[in-house]
Amino acid sequence: xxxxxxxxxxxxxxxxxxSTGGTxxxxxxxxxCNKNYWYLTxxxxxxxxxxVSPSKGIRDIFSNGSKYGFECATAVVILFYKGxxxxxxxxxxxxxxxxxxxxSWDTDADLGVSSAEVSASYGRPGDCLYFKNPDxxxxxxxxxxxxxxxxDQDLYYGHGVGIRSANDxxxxxxxxxxxxxxxxAYLEDLIVYPDYDYLSQFAPSDLRQSYxxxxxPPGLAAVKARIGxxxxxxM
Length: 235
Prior knowledge:
By secondary structure, the protein is α+β, with helices and mostly antiparallel strands. It has helices at 3-19, 54-63, 72-88, 90-96, 166-174, 196-200, and strands at residues 24-25, 38-40, 46-48, 69-70, 101-102, 114-116, 128-132, 145-152, 155-158, 162-164, 186-187, 191-193, 223-227, 230-234. Strands 10-9-8-7-11 form a 5-stranded antiparallel sheet, with helices on both faces. It starts with a helix and ends with a strand.
C-alpha cells in the first residue's frame, strides 16, 4: 500500500470511529472540549495545552468523545489529523503539529489542506465533500451546509448527521430550509484533501513515494494559490 492509499484508509477509519465515539455537534458558540487536554478559545476552537502532546489530544477526542462538541468543518479537520497520526505515528506527528489548534478550516500549514473545484464524481474515499443548502432557514444557519468525508460509493460521514447516503443528507438539509424555499440542497463540485505528497516524506520508508497525484484524473488544468495555511486549487 502506498502513502496516499494508507492515509485515505486511515481517514475513513477515523470517520467511522468518530461516528460511534460519542462526540456531539455544536456551534462555535456552544463548542466544548476535555479541558485536561485542550484550552477552549474565545471563538470556539481547541488549543492544545502546554505539556500535552498533540497526538494524545487527538486520540482523546476518539476515546472520550462525550467530552467534545464541535461543528462539521472542525470534525473534518480532526479526521484529517487523526488519519495523518495513524499513518506517520506519534513522534513525527508531534514534531509537525506541536502547537495544534482545532478551529474550522484554520489548519496547520503542514497539513496542506487543498481544495479543487471539480466534479464531486471525482471524489474518492477519504476526501472531504460539501453539501450546500442554499435556502437554509436563517434561524438555523448551522444547517447551511454539511462537510462530509466520503467513505465509499454514495456513503458519507457528516458530523451531526452520521453515516448516510447523499440523498439522506440532502433530505436532512432540506428539512432545515426557510419557509417557501424552492431550491434543494445539493452536493457541490468541490473536493478537499490534505497534501499527500508533502506528508509522505514523514511516513515509514515502506509507505513513501516520490509523487502522488491529485484526487482527479490528469489533464485538467489547475491554478494553485495559497492563503495562510490553506492551499486552494481552482479549475
